[in-house]
Amino acid sequence: MALRYSNIKVYRPESLEEALTILSTRKEKVRIVAGSTDVTVMMRSGTIEEELLDLSGLRRSLAYIGASGDGVEIGALATYMMLLSNVLVHERVPLLAEAMRTIGSPQIRNMGTLVGNVANASPAGDTIPPLYVLGADIVLEGISGTRNISVDEFFLGVGKTVRRPDELITRIIVGGQPPGSRGFFEKLGLRRAMAISVVSVAGLISLDHGVVADARIALGAVAPTVIRAPGAEGRLKGEELTDDVMWDAAEAAARDAKPVTDVRGTAGYRRMVVASLVYRGLSRVAYELEVAGID
Amino acid sequence: MNWRWPESTSLEEVLKVHWIGASIPRLDGWPKVRGEARYPTDLVLEEMLHAKTVRSPHPHAKILSVDTSEADGMPGVAAVLTASDIPGQNRYGALVQDAPVLAEDVVRYIGEPVALVAAVCEEAAVEAAEAVNVEYQPLRPVTSIEEALSPGAPRLHSTGNVARHTVISRGSPHSAIETSDVVVETMYRTQSQKHMFLEPEGGVAWIDEDGTINVVAGGQNPYRDKLQISRVLGLPMEKIRVVSYPAGGAFGGKDDITVQIHLALLAWKTGKPVRLVWSREESGVVGYHRHPYRMEMKTGATRDGRLTANLAKIYSDTGAYQSFGPAILDVSIEMINGPYRIPNYEIDAYLVYTDNGVASAFRGFGAPQANFAIESQLNMIAEKLGMDKLEIRAMNVLGPREPGSFGVAVETEPSIQRILERARGRLSRVGTPSRGWSRRGIGVALAMKGVGFGAIPDYPAAAIEIDPDRERVVAYFTNPDYGQGVITSCAQIVAEALQLHVDKVEVVNADTALSPDTGSSSASKSTYAAGNALLLAARNAVRRLALEAARILGVPASEVGYDAGFFSAPGSRGRVSIFDAAAEMASRGSRPRFEAAFEIPRRPEPVEGTLEVPHLVFSHALAIAEVDVDLLLAKAEAKDVHLIADVGRLINPVGARAQMEGGAIQGVGYALMEEQAYSDARTENINFTTYIVPTIADVPDVSVEFVEGEEKTGPYGAKGAGEVPFVPIAAAVADAIADATGVRPTELPMNGERLSRLLASAGLLPKRLSRLLEGA
Description:
The complex is a heterodimer of chains A (about 300) and B (about 775).
Chain A: E1 9-11, H1 16-26, E2 30-33, H2 39-45, E3 51-54, H3 59-62, E4 65-68, E5 71-75, H4 80-84, H5 87-92, H6 94-101, H7 106-111, H8 114-120, H9 128-134, E6 136-142, E7 145-150, H10 151-154, E8 155-157, E9 160-161, E10 168-174, E11 181-188, E12 199-208, E13 211-220, E14 227-228, H11 230-236, H12 243-256, H13 267-292
Parallel strand pairs in A: 1-3, 2-3
Antiparallel strand pairs in A: 4-5, 5-10, 6-7, 6-10, 8-9, 11-12, 12-13, 13-14
Helix pairs in contact in A: 11-12, 12-13
Chain B: H1 11-16, H2 29-34, E1 49-55, E2 61-67, H3 69-72, E3 77-81, E4 106-107, E5 113-119, H4 122-131, E6 133-138, H5 145-149, E7 162-170, H6 173-178, E8 182-190, E9 202-207, E10 213-217, H7 222-233, E11 240-243, H8 260-270, E12 274-277, H9 280-286, E13 293-301, E14 307-319, H10 325-335, E15 344-353, H11 367-385, H12 389-396, H13 415-423, E16 438-450, E17 461-467, E18 472-477, H14 486-498, E19 505-509, H15 526-553, E20 561-563, E21 566-568, E22 576-577, H16 578-587, E23 593-597, E24 618-630, E25 635-646, H17 653-672, E26 678-679, E27 682-683, E28 701-706, H18 729-741, H19 752-761, H20 767-773
Parallel strand pairs in B: 1-12, 10-11, 14-15, 18-19, 25-28
Antiparallel strand pairs in B: 1-5, 2-4, 2-6, 3-5, 7-15, 8-13, 9-10, 9-12, 13-14, 16-24, 17-18, 17-23, 20-21, 21-22, 24-25, 26-27
C-alpha cells in the first residue's frame, strides 16, 4: 500500500522529556527525524512508518559539541557542517573530520547529523569506521533511564542496532586521537562527491620509535555492519611500516572483509578495494613519518 | 530592392553586422535561473485529476486478464483505462508504430504500460493503480543481444528478434584485409546510458470549450506528437494542440512519445484536466536510454599508415520496440568508417530486440558508439606503426568535396584539416607528470556528426509576425528549446535578417496552435532548420511590406529598399518603418504574418538498405583528453578535455561554448561512470543515487576552440553544435588510458570495476590485488 503523505503524523516535541514520552508510547511506530537526509529518501521509496518524531524543536539542547575527557561529545542534532567548523573536532578527532568531509554535498552536510548517520546503521555510513577506531560511546536515553553502549556493540546488522524503540540517542562521546597516533580515512565512491562508499576504511596507528604499538582498522560497506579488521591489526602490531608489512596488512584486511555484490560493485572488486585503501592509508602514515623524521 | 539577402552576403559583411556572433544572454535565462519559469510538470489546473500508470512487473509475459473492477469503484477514481478503451490505433512509435499505447496481450519490458488511472489526488491514483488486477503468465525474457540472436530464443515479435539487418560493402574488403600490412581486430561494447534530465517526463492536458485537446509536456517534436495522438485517439489533427516548451532537459530522451498520448487519452475520456508525471524511479525504469552496442571491428592499413579496409559488425540493442532504432543504426553505419578514405569496407549491421526497456534517441544518435570503435582502431593502428596519431588522421581524412564511403563529401571546405592543424603539438601532456601510483595519459579522437535527417525529407516551416502596435517582431517555430538555446540563436537570426535590435524580437516556441511545423529539436539541427525557415520568412516579410511602403511613399515597389528597420526610396522624401508598413497592411484586414518553409538539402534517395544515409552537412570536433589512472585503486579520472570544433559560424559564441562544455562533461560520464546495467532484463540504476552522473567535482577542465567554417546552406553559415562535442570523448578518454597504462579499454564505461580487471589482465595491478580481485 502506498504511503499517503497526508496520513503521516508528525510529532514535534519541544523538550527532551516530551520526546522520550512520545517514544515510550509510540515505540517502533515512529521514525525519529534529525537532518532528514535519510528519512526523505525512505519516504520516497515508501519504506517508512507513518509517524515521524521531528527533533527540530530540540536544537537548543541537542545541537551542541563539547569536550569530554580527551575526546569530544557530540549532541544528537550537531550537523556535519557544525562539526567541520568546530576547532575541538579538528584538534581531537581529525580523523572524524576527514571522513565527514567526504559525505554527500554541502547541502547534505548542512542538514545531516553525525548521530543520524550512526542511528541509520548503514554499513556504508562514513562516520562509523572512524568511531570504531577512535572508540565511542553511544548514549541512549529513555523515559526509564540512560545507558551507554560502546560503538562496537551498538550495531546488529543493516539498519539494526541495540537501540530500543523507546530510546533516543542523545549524544555520542568520541575518544580523542592519542598523542603520537596517526589516523587515516580512505573512501572509494563511484564519483568524487555525492557518492555512497563502495568501500571505506578508517585506521588509527600508534607508533613507538617507528614500531606499531597499536593498530586499529575498521572497514565500511563490506559486511552487514562496519567491522574491525583483526587480521590486519594483528599483522601490524610490533612491526615497522615496511612495504611488505603494509601489503600483508592490506591483504589481511581484504580477507577480514565479507563483501557482497550489489549495484555499486562486485564482491571481488570490493575485496580488492579494501586492500588498495588499507595499503594507501598505511602508506600515507609511513610517508608522514618519513617526512616528519619520526622513527 | 537594394538590400541583399543573407545567402549572397559575404563573410566580411556577416562579420560587420550586430547579432551574428554576439554572445547575448539567453532570452529565457532570467526566469529560469530565478526559478520563475513554469515547466510542464509545475502546472496546476483547476479541478485537475492526477494520473498513474499501471505497469508490467515482468520483462516478458502474456497478459491473461486485466480486471479493473476494484479500481473503478474506489473513491475519487475518475477513470481506469485499458487497451480496449483506445478509440483509434493502439500503437505508437516515431518511425514505425510498433509499441502498444497500453499493452493488449503481451508485455515486453518491465514497466510497459498496461492501464491508466486518473483520480482526484495523486495518492488515490496510486492506490487505484495498485488495485488494477492484471494476471500474467511470465515468459522467458530475452536479456541480451547474444541471447536474442541465439537459436531457440523466445521471439519477441512475429518477425523475430532482428528488427533490421543491413549489409553495405564496397570494393573487396576481405581480400584487402588479408593483404594489409597491419590489421587490428577488436570487439567493443558500449552501455546503456540514461538522459537524466532534471525534469522527468510529464505534463498536463485539458479540453477547451471548443473541444480541442491541449497537451503541455516536455517534448522535442510537437507536431509529430500531435500526429501520434491523433492516430491513437482517432481524432482529426485540428482537435489537438501540443505545447512542448519549456522542457527541463531532453537530450533525445523526449524525442519519441513519453506521456503525451496517455495524457490526451485521459483528458478525452474524463473531460477533465489531468496531470501525469513520471517519478524519477519510473523515468529510470521506463524512460528511454541510449542503445547498447556490440561492435566487432577488423581494420587494415598499409605499412605507411594508409587505411585499406574496414570490416564492421554492428549489433544494436533497441530493447522491446524500434522507436528511433533504425535511424540510429543508420548513423552508426555512416560513422563507422569515420571521415576517412577507406577503399574497401563491409558493414554488417543488426538492430536487435530484447526485453531491456526501450532504447531511443540520445545526443549523438548512434555516432558515439561507432566513433568509440573506429577511433580506437585508428589509434591502435598508429601505435602498431609507431605513427603520430594526428598524422595518421591527416593522411587518411577525406579532402573537401571528396566523395566518402557513401558517395558524398564529409566537408565542403577544409574543416577537418584546419582542426588537425590546430591540434598539432597539443598531444603532449600539459598537466602534472605521473607520480606515485598515478599515471597521466593523453589521448585523441576525431568526430563528425551529421546535421539533420540526411536523406529523409525535412521541410521546416516557421513564421514571422510584425506587430505594429507593440513594435515587436514575433518569431514562431516549433523546435522546442529544452535548454540548448535555440530561442536565443533564432531571435538573433531574425534580428540580423531584419536589421533590428534583438530586443524587438520575441519568440513563441513549440506550440502547434500558433506556429507552423518546424520539425524536431534533434540531429543538431534546431538552429539550422528554424534559422533557415525564419530567414526565408523574414525575406517574405520584407518583400511583402515593401509593397505597403511603396504605397505610403508613392513610388513603385521596385524602387523601395530596406535598411535597419526602414523602407525608403531614392528621390522620395521620408522613410517608412517596418512597423508602419505592417500597420498599413493590418489596416486593410490582413495579418502581417509571413510563413516560409526551408528544404533541408538532401540526396533524393537514401543509400540502399538505409533510411537516412547519407547526410550532406557535418559538424566536426576533435577531442584531446588527459586522464589520470591510479594503478592502486584502478581508477581513471578525466583531468582535462580540449575540444577543437567546426560547428559552422557561431550565432551565439557563449551558447555554442556551453554546448561544447556540456557535451564534453556528458561524454566523460559516458566514458567513465554512467551505466544503466540490465541483469535478467531488470535494472536497478533508476535514480540519481544509483545512476552515477558526474558532479561538478568530477568535471575536468574543459577548454574549447572553434574553427569557424561557413556552411553555405546554414543560416549565416551555422551548422549544429548539440551533439558533436559528445561524440569523440569516450574514444579520447580510452586513448588516454591506453597512453597512461599501455592497455586499451574496449568496453564502456571504464569504471573501477572494469578497469581493475583490465589492469589485472595486463599484469599492471599489484599482484596481491589481482589475486583478491579474482577471488583467490
